[in-house]
Design goal:
Structural class: alpha/beta
Number of helices: 5
Largest sheet: 5 strands, parallel
Helix content: 40-55%
Number of strands: 5
Shape: globular
Order of helices and strands: EHEHEHEHEH
Strand order of the largest sheet: 2-1-3-4-5
């Protein structure tokens, strides 16, 4: 299934890993951003089917705050990437209504398995 994806991740190595795996597993279109401002800028010209959003994207707005802006302005489904599994962060993230969570660390097998679930959810929710 062809899918357009925006990856918002401030760790360059993780960002490149995600991009490489997703580009290699299908005819996906992938764009990347490493902070909130860049993510919002990319969305001015690119409307992906889904956004993989790191919760901890560095200074300024965090991934949850950016997801809330995106949901209100663009209604694009969000998948949160996080190494934080503390209850307060997860509860706060759920309020942004993500369609899925991927917990770090992520390896290739886990990413492909999780992305297959995400694609099924996108079809079910009529975003693809």
């Amino acid at each position: 299934m062809k899918c357009s994806i925006l990856i918002v991740e401030d760790n360059f190595i993780i960002q490149m890993f995600l991009e490489e795996i997703l580009l290699g597993c299908g005819e996906h279109t992938v764009k990347t951003a490493n902070n909130a401002a860049k993510a919002l800028q990319v969305l001015e010209d690119f409307k992906p089917h889904v956004i993989l959003m790191d919760i901890g994207i560095g200074p300024g707005l965090d991934g949850i705050e950016v997801a809330e802006i995106i949901k209100e302005k663009y209604n694009i489904p969000i998948v949160f990437l996080t190494g934080n599994s503390d209850q307060a962060t997860i509860v706060r993230a759920h309020k942004a209504d993500p369609i899925h969570f991927i917990f770090k660390p992520i390896d290739e097998c886990k990413l492909l398995t999780e992305f297959a679930v995400i694609e099924e959810k996108l079809v079910k929710l009529s975003f693809m």
